[in-house]
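Course assignment 3, question 2. Fill in each field.
Student: A.L.
Task: Predict the tertiary structure for the chain below.
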Amino acid sequence: MHTRTIACIAASLMVALAATVVWAAIPADEIARLGKDLTPFGAEKAGNAGGTIPAWDGGITKPPAGYKPGMHHPDPFADDEILFTISKANMDEYSDKLTEGHKALLTTYDSFKMNVYPTRRSASAPQRIYDATKRVAATAKLVEGGNGVKGAVIGIPFPIPQNGLEVIWNHLVRYRGEIAARKIGQAAMTRSGNYTLVKFEDEFNLLYAHEGMTEEKLRNRIALFKQKVVSPARLAGGILLVHETLDQVKEPRQAWLYNPGQRRVRRAPNVAYDNPGTAADGLRTSDQFDMFNGAPDRYDWKLVGKAEMYVPYNSYKLHSDSLKLDDILTPLHPNPAHLRYELHRVWVVEATLKDKSRHIYKRRTIYVDEDSWQILVADQYDNRDQLWRVSEGHVINYYDKPCLWTTLEVHVDLQSGRYLAIGLDNESSMYDFNIERSPEDYTPAALRREGVR
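Answer field:
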């Protein structure tokens, strides 16, 4: 990335992580800025100097008229018109606000373009999450080595980050409701545009965000995740269960798999890092799910700064139940006609593989939304230092439990001309944020009972 694309922030933020992370308390007068000139999550509340990014006014706090839980989320910005379109022909005019991945997509594929819409800072969260963020900002610390967090629960631990690892942990524990279920599709596209749809039933029990949660009650688990394969028949019945931990030095992630052929539950230590994602045909790694997940210990994380970039945002059009999957899933990349890009401020973090560590990605550049701590774009480089895969998180604000989260993740492989789309929900029911579950529903024993049924 050219240095002129980065609006450099204070030198204290320009911290490259070495083997040991040094933590310094955020001064009380800095914490007092939350909810004043900074948003409750630590973003700049004001717009930019050019007026192309507006001030944050609270985001979406109530659904559009007529919305009921369980519906596909109607587009509150349906009347917005395209401001301009970035293509291979004119990309140089906008290069200072384009990621290297987007430049590569525009250069490689004549069919790829970016329709840029007015910026809408729609991200929001419940007041209790804001209150908790201000509370834990004074106590949150990275554990030694940076592979965990202590002194924090419910809120964003580092709303005023001092290094790249703090930004990544903000993404890992960001608010996405408490318990959610979804029925989605995944398509591993061939270069010619063929695919076999894999259908999943996912459940997330996001323990970290539960009301009244404490570190003691958390028992070092930030989330419980279950994923069942529904189709095709050759894969149906397989179930993945994951217990994600807050301090991954104290206790690494735990995972189990139910194999319907054997009718057995087995530990799955390989569901992590660069092992292949479920039924993804090798087009994403385990740690690319949710844009990035799991232990960050194989990389050094450098906070480059903050930048104004064109990123996927408010993707209600892409989420619409008026679209069929074939409207979206075109060869080489998703149909640009249904994609929405906006100018937003993002934190830029460079991840470089540590000496003696192994991963198929030698380097990653990650762009994190300042308003929500959601990763929006990630560029992944191979061991030759060549740009390999470009990942996009197309997000919406979910009205049921106000939060910004992906409706579709796309991982484009520039070297093979293929891509993976995960989260396809246009022809299925949407997120359900009102299911009732207990931690006992996410045990190996419960997995075994569910698999036998």
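Instructor remarks: DSSP finds eight helices and 17 strands in the chain. The radius of gyration is 21 Å.
Grade: pending
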